[in-house]
Design brief:
The chain is of the alpha+beta class. The protein contains nine helices and five strands. InterPro entries: DUF6601.
Length: 233
C-alpha cells in the first residue's frame, strides 16, 4: 500500500464502497407498530436510524430534538459525521497520532485501554487515562441505499463547500478505522460484545465486507477524511 498523504482527499462519490448488502431494505429486527397515517414502506431503511437527534443550530439559537422516523435529516447527517473540530487543527494531528491504521481491539485491551462507547465521531479512537473511545457502527452504514441516497450529492453551499462530500469522506474513513480495529475473530467477538458492531452481522459477513472495502486499497487514503489517515489520537 502506498504511503498516505495528509492532503485533502479527492471527492469520489460515484459508487458505494462495498457491494454486499449486510442489511437489505426488507430487514428488520423487531415487530413494527404501523402508523395508520404514515405506515413505513417495506422498502424503507428508515428503521435503522435513531428515533430522534439533537438539532443544534447555534447561529439561530436553536437546540431542540428532531424526529428521524421518516429518515435522516440534513442536520442529522451533518452532525453524525462532523469532524470540524479535528480538521481545524489538521496540521497538528501528526503530533497526536501516527498515519497508520489503529491497533486491533484485542491489542487495545492488552495496552490497558478500556473501550468506552461514544456517539461523537470526533471522539472516536481518542484515548487516554486507560480508556479508548469508540463510536459503534450503525446499521444504516451497512446499507447501499444510505450511501447512494444520502452521500452522493455534489451540491455545494454558498461558501463553495460540498457538505455531503465531507460527510461521505468521514463515513468512509470511519468504516476504514474498523477494518483496523476488527482484524481477527477475537476482535470481532469483542466488538459484538461491546455493541460496536450490530449483533446480526456474522464473522463471515464481516470478512466479505472488509474484502470489498479493501478492493482498491490505494484509493482508500484518497477518499477518506484527513482525520482517519491517522489511527488513535
Amino acid at each position: 500500500m502506498s504511503s498516505p498523504s495528509t492532503n485533502s482527499p479527492s471527492y469520489q462519490v460515484s459508487s458505494t464502497p462495498f457491494q454486499t448488502a449486510l442489511f437489505p431494505l426488507s430487514f428488520t429486527t423487531h415487530s413494527t407498530i404501523h402508523s395508520t397515517t404514515n405506515p413505513p414502506s417495506s422498502t424503507s431503511y428508515t428503521h435503522f436510524f435513531p428515533a430522534s437527534h439533537r438539532n443544534i443550530r447555534p447561529h439561530e439559537a436553536i437546540d431542540d430534538l428532531e424526529s428521524l422516523y421518516k429518515g435522516p435529516s440534513p442536520s442529522f447527517i451533518a452532525r453524525e459525521f462532523d469532524l470540524s473540530r479535528l480538521h481545524s487543527i489538521r496540521h497538528l494531528l501528526w503530533l497526536a497520532g501516527r498515519p497508520v491504521p489503529p491497533h486491533p481491539l484485542h491489542q487495545q485491551v492488552l495496552m490497558n485501554r478500556e473501550p468506552i462507547v461514544t456517539k461523537k465521531l470526533d471522539q472516536h479512537l481518542v484515548w487516554g487515562g486507560g480508556r479508548v473511545f469508540l463510536k459503534p457502527v450503525s446499521k444504516f452504514l451497512f446499507t447501499r441505499e444510505f450511501w447512494t441516497r444520502e452521500l452522493t450529492s455534489r451540491k455545494k453551499d454558498d461558501a463553495g463547500v460540498c457538505k455531503r462530500c465531507e460527510s461521505r469522506q468521514a463515513a468512509l474513513g470511519f468504516l476504514f478505522s474498523y477494518v483496523g480495529l476488527v482484524q481477527r475473530e477475537t476482535d470481532f467477538d469483542l466488538a459484538t460484545v461491546k455493541g460496536l458492531l450490530p449483533r446480526e452481522v456474522t464473522w463471515g459477513q464481516w470478512r466479505l465486507f472488509v474484502d470489498e472495502l479493501l478492493a482498491s486499497p490505494d484509493a482508500i487514503y484518497k477518499n477518506i477524511a484527513v482525520r482517519f489517515i491517522y489511527g488513535e489520537l
